[in-house]
Write a structure and sequence with these properties.
By secondary structure, this protein is an alpha/beta fold. The protein is 41% helix and 14% strand. Strands 29, 30, 31, 32, 33, 34, 35 and 36 form an eight-stranded mixed beta sheet that branches.
Length: 1143
């Protein structure tokens, strides 16, 4: 069957589309145009997918039709001469914005699937990656190659076609953000790409000049954003009317089945030639070369069009036609032909009336444009139509080519010809106009060496083997003088004072590599400790890169993981670590127990917990804490709560966060032989972020490197100006006393910043300069030039602040779609730097601030990640599955038991659970012991039916353990998800699904090591949640941003009482530490820094007036630029009634 197909369209839910772009109007437009198969477009958008399911029904295999009752109503608006079958094929376009090979890539890809189930499954997978609800065409920070892989995993019948491959900003071969070949984009999956969409600004002859496209079927589609634009490009097929028939014809490229394409005149496309729209400059590639790519009017870079890009990649001369190429037909939309004949606008009433008359007499638009003989067209009585169609088919038209977002303009007749052909001079009363058209021609192929040829394979990247001594020497040669001094320091105590961006990690890792490779120090003798898992992982990865895979790596760990390792080595049965949430619950239970004893306690659990944490950091057990608090009745009660809390932990074989260091310090200081074992082992100790030590951590270092043995190699590095953790016990005094602890200490200052521009460093220095630490006597400097100011923005409200941030990101990305570029919502793409979403970070003082920003990003479709343990690991469903994993492996505590009881058993009630727990506590049973005893002995006060339910719960756990035997940790998590009620909880929303996916990803790294996984999860910090590889904007607190860097940083909420922070009527936080925190936040920025705030912000439900932070006032005016947008008020438009109409 011969038919026309337009596979790439959009819905009313995509940006910059017509409000009437629904299934009914697509059905009507398809008949008027003469198109049989139309893409649904946008099936990933939930609301549109719902309409697809409601309004369409199955037709031929893999195709759908409008339901009869809807179709019947629509048919009444279609002339009888145009009526014909219309089928829908499930399609969607995905916008991929990501970084690859150090360059931001933006490409659009057309996806087609065979049925609704596949569409739903594919959408669900994308939903776990990004936001598919903000726009009909989802914007994902996902490599196009990985998109194809996900599609293939979903269905082997689905297929992907790179869309409009030449468009400058959003295509696979685009000059601004594309690749030099399709293969480079899709890599190993290239064999699964069998077609490309050429786009409006190119036609087959232009594509034939690039041999890299040989063997790919060149398809054409309208990419319609309104019903009127349907079919402006389309495909002509002669195959079975089915999904598989269409796929087969395109995939095989058989000229008997895929007959060719209908093509927009490429000159009419809005990115055909080069130019600068603002200056009305339009140039061909040769002229652009003569101008050196600069606009001759304003001197800015020109927007290089599709023809220029084709010339760049072409390795064949104009006119070459490869064997097996398909035919094509250049067309002009009928409405544009009437616009030229009648000399009125294409959307005018006159054109609409003439269009409807032509279709009623002659049939569909494609019938008129392609099939009918001109004699028959002349019989319609529409003046000049037959001659216009003849000229179009013979390419006897004049075109002012499109450029820089401006569509080209076609002229079929000039005024003289029109008058002469009609035989009357005054018919249209149009004054003579000078023709601005140009001859259709293509410049000759350039004489320089072509970029792509059949015989020129892509260059392979040379991988350096850093194990090679010569290459290690090269790496060391890149160190500056101070870094090299630190690396080659002869030994003993060394204090390195390192400002932001001065290469702390680089220096530490090079020193370790130097000791191991040059001085032949054993990895077993080296210990490096830091504060986050992420920092430890980065250090280990750099060491591996420097020394190669074959060398053993030293122990690189956080303080807490190092101590947990020591404690685990002593216990046959490892203890689990509880997180902050579980710790809070246990404290509340201990508090309740004390109150039952008749004690009155006015403090809240959080306040009590702070006292207990402080006691543990000072290495005070409950008895010691009570002794020093003898004169304080309230602290005496706290000591009782502390004692009960510790007893609860001991019974359940649990540690809390502070216990890890507390217990190791105790053992080091009370058991000399135990301490000596580790002191002798670790002869070379490295401590990162030394300014953030608390008392317990300090005591560990002093135990491993006592003062009388300071000749040991002890290297500490830090920056007192970045001490920001006083609220959790850190004390800068330990940094200050390092030189008195180790009198022969060497001191080296790292002062050259390799991260930030001079402006950012100058501005941040002014915040801290009058409040610096004595050790920070040398100022950090940069040699990186950049913008001369940082941006200050005071917005009306926190909502306006979020809106402005979202707008700036869209601008700097270069726009998220054509609408951004065409409407100039994006920075001029020719002068914008190449940015991707991962280049941006939004920092805030309190977690409450991110909610408005998150909401705005959801609405605008900006992909983001929140670097917050709370937002990931404490989402409903995540604690439950971790608890179930512990319980099924015979681990965990009673909180885990309560977490999962409702998942496996219902109806048992809270009172029986409390009875069971109290019985276990009285008998000092762990959870696994308690469940075992309950299966053998009656529990006092518990009904037999309820105890039977407990026993059934135990059997269920044993069954899970048996079924999971031999599985890795990640496989166990997936098993539990699929085989419990958790499957519904974990898949109810995109954020929970993302959180679970993150958990599984973390588990993969641990293989079958359950103990390591549970410890790693428990010790996860906010910073550890951040994923550098994610193509998303990062949202995080200023504290979580420590140690990270981003090209563009927004520091939000720059207002009094937020920066510096003050909670309600309470005492303001440590002003010096708040200033240092602001300094840390500012110095996360590499290239651009925005300080934003709101004049009004909702605080605890009340809208309050806000004032600019005093820290901003400390920055000199010459370094600040007020970029607060001045928005005009827009009048509200009246609601428009939806109508079924084409124009």
């Amino acid at each position: 069957m011969k038919f026309i197909a337009d596979l790439h369209v959009h819905s009313k839910f995509s940006r910059a589309t017509a409000k009437n772009l629904d299934l009914e109007n697509l059905y009507i437009a398809a008949q008027l145009k003469g198109i049989t198969v139309v893409g649904t477009g946008d099936f990933t958008y939930p609301a549109w997918f719902s309409e697809i399911c409601d309004k369409l029904e199955t037709a031929e295999a893999g195709l759908f039709k409008l339901k009869d009752e809807i179709a019947k109503e629509c048919d009444e608006q279609v002339p009888a001469a145009c009526r014909g079958p219309v089928r829908f094929i499930l399609s969607t376009e995905i916008s991929n914005i990501y970084k690859k090979n150090e360059k931001t890539r933006k490409n659009h890809n057309l996806v087609l699937v065979p049925d609704l189930a596949v569409a739903e499954k594919f959408s669900a997978k994308l939903d776990r990656i990004g936001n598919i609800k903000s726009d009909g065409r989802p914007i994902l920070g996902l490599d196009a190659r990985n998109l194809l892989e996900i599609l293939m995993e979903t269905s082997d019948q689905a297929f992907l076609i790179p869309a409009h491959i030449w468009t400058p900003w959003f295509s696979v071969l685009g000059s601004k953000s594309g690749f030099n070949s399709i293969d480079e984009c899709f890599e190993d999956l290239m064999p699964h790409i069998f077609a490309v969409e050429t786009g409006l600004s190119s036609d087959p002859p232009m594509n034939w000049r690039v041999s890299g496209l040989d063997g790919l079927t060149l398809v054409s589609n309208s990419d319609a954003h309104s019903p009127l634009n349907l079919g402006r490009e389309a495909n002509l097929l002669n195959t079975q009317l089915s999904y598989h028939g269409i796929k087969s014809a395109i995939e095989n490229g058989n000229s008997d089945e895929f007959l060719g394409t209908f093509e927009f005149y490429p000159q009419e496309g809005k990115y055909h030639l080069d130019g600068h729209r603002n200056c009305k400059i339009r140039l061909n590639p040769r002229e652009t070369k003569d101008c050196e790519g600069k606009c001759p009017v304003c001197g800015k870079a020109l927007t290089l069009g599709v023809l220029n890009r084709v010339e760049e990649l072409a390795n064949r001369t104009q006119g070459f036609k490869p064997p097996g190429s398909h035919s094509y037909h250049s067309i002009i939309p009928l409405a544009e032909i009437f616009s030229d004949i009648l000399q009125v606008g294409v959307k005018s009433k006159k054109v609409r009336t003439t269009y409807q008359k032509a279709l009623a007499q002659l049939g569909s638009e494609f019938n008129i444009l392609h099939t009918l003989e001109t004699d028959k067209i002349n019989c319609s009585g529409i003046p000049l139509l037959g001659e216009a169609i003849r000229r179009m088919r013979q390419k006897e038209v004049e075109i002012a080519s499109g450029y820089d977002g401006e569509y080209g303009r076609i002229k079929i007749f000039n005024s003289h010809e029109r008058e002469q052909l009609l035989g009357q001079k005054t018919l249209f009363s149009v004054p003579p106009q000078k023709s601005a058209a140009e001859t259709i021609s293509y410049p000759k192929a350039p004489s320089h060496q072509p970029l792509l040829t059949d015989s020129m394979p892509l260059a392979k990247t040379t991988q350096l083997n850093l194990f090679n001594t010569h290459q290690v020497r090269d790496s060391f040669s890149q160190l500056n003088d101070e870094q090299r001094r630190a690396v080659e320091y002869p030994g003993g105590a060394l204090l390195i004072v390192a400002g932001p961006g001065t290469g702390k990690t680089r220096t530490l890792t090079h020193r370790i590599a130097y000791l191991m490779m040059k001085k032949k120090v054993s990895a077993h003798q080296v210990l490096a400790v830091t504060f986050t898992n992420k920092a430890a992982q980065e250090m280990a990865a750099r060491l591996k890169g420097l020394m190669g895979d074959s060398r053993s790596l030293p122990l690189v760990a956080t303080f807490h993981s190092f101590c947990y390792r020591i404690l685990t080595e002593q216990n046959e049965t490892p203890k689990d670590i509880i997180d902050d949430h579980q710790r809070g619950i246990l404290i509340a239970e201990a508090l309740a127990h004390v109150r039952k004893q008749g004690h009155k306690v006015s403090l809240k659990p959080k306040q009590i917990l702070k006292h207990i944490i402080a006691a543990k950091q000072q290495n005070l057990d409950p008895d010691e804490f009570e002794k020093i608090s003898a004169d304080d009745p309230q602290k005496k009660i706290i000591s009782a709560i502390y004692r009960i809390y510790q007893d609860m932990l001991a019974i359940q074989s649990l540690y809390d966060y502070e216990d890890l260091i507390f217990n190791v310090v105790r053992q080091f200081e009370t058991d000399p032989k135990f301490c000596e074992r580790y002191e002798k082992q670790f002869q070379h100790i490295f401590v990162d972020e030394y300014q953030d030590l608390n008392q317990a951590q300090y005591r560990i270092i002093r135990a491993l490197a006592p003062a009388e043995n300071y000749v040991k190699d002890l290297c500490v590095i830090g920056d007192p100006d970045q001490a920001i953790y006083g609220f959790r016990g850190s004390d800068i005094r330990y940094f200050n006393c390092f030189m008195s602890d180790y009198p022969d200490t060497g001191v080296i200052n790292l002062v050259r910043n390799y991260r930030s521009t001079k402006t950012i460093l100058n501005a941040s220095f002014q915040v801290i300069k009058n409040h610096r630490h004595p050790y920070s006597d040398e100022r950090t400097y940069s040699q990186i030039d950049g913008v001369k100011t940082i941006s200050i923005m005071e917005l009306a409200t926190d909502k306006a602040e979020a809106q402005t941030i979202a707008g700036i990101i869209e601008q700097q990305i270069g726009g998220t779609g054509f609408h951004s570029v065409d409407t100039r919502k994006a920075i001029d793409p020719n002068i914008a730097t190449s940015r991707s979403y991962s280049d941006f970070a939004v920092l805030y003082r309190t977690n409450e601030q991110h909610k408005m920003i998150e909401k705005m990003f959801e609405r605008t479709g900006i992909p983001y990640q929140i670097a917050s343990r709370e937002s990931i690991l404490n989402r409903k469903g995540l604690p439950e599955i971790i608890s179930l994993l512990k319980a099924s492996e015979g681990r965990g505590g009673y909180l885990d038991y309560e977490n999962v009881m409702g998942l496996l058993m219902s109806g048992i009630g809270k009172k029986p659970l409390d009875l069971f727990k109290e019985w276990c506590f009285r008998n000092r049973f762990t959870l696994s012991q308690g469940l075992l005893k309950a299966s053998r002995f009656p529990i006092p006060g518990l009904k037999p039916s309820r105890q039977q339910m407990l026993n059934e719960f135990s059997r269920q756990l044993l069954l899970y353990k048996e079924n999971m035997s031999g599985l890795s940790v990640s496989e166990k998590l997936l098993f539990l998800e699929k085989n419990t009620k958790l499957v519904d909880i974990l898949n109810r929303d995109v954020k929970t699904k993302e959180a679970f996916a993150h958990l599984v990803d973390v588990a993969v790294d641990f293989g079958a090591d359950l103990n390591g996984f549970l410890a790693g999860i428990a010790l996860h910090t906010d910073t550890d949640i951040y994923t550098q590889q994610a193509e998303k904007v990062s949202l995080m607190t200023m504290h979580a941003a420590k140690g990270l860097e981003f090209p563009v940083v927004f520091v939000t909420g720059c207002e009094e009482n937020l920066i510096p922070f003050k909670r309600g009527n309470r005492r303001q936080a440590d002003i010096k530490e708040e200033r240092r925190l602001y300094y840390v936040a500012m110095t996360r920025a590499k290239e651009m820094l925005y300080l934003t705030g709101a004049k009004k912000r909702r605080i605890y439900g009340k809208l309050e007036d806000r004032f600019l932070s005093p820290f901003v006032a400390d920055i000199e005016n010459r370094l600040k630029l007020d970029e607060t947008p001045r928005l005009k008020k827009r009048k509200k438009k009246g609601s428009e009634q939806m109508q079924l109409k084409l124009f």
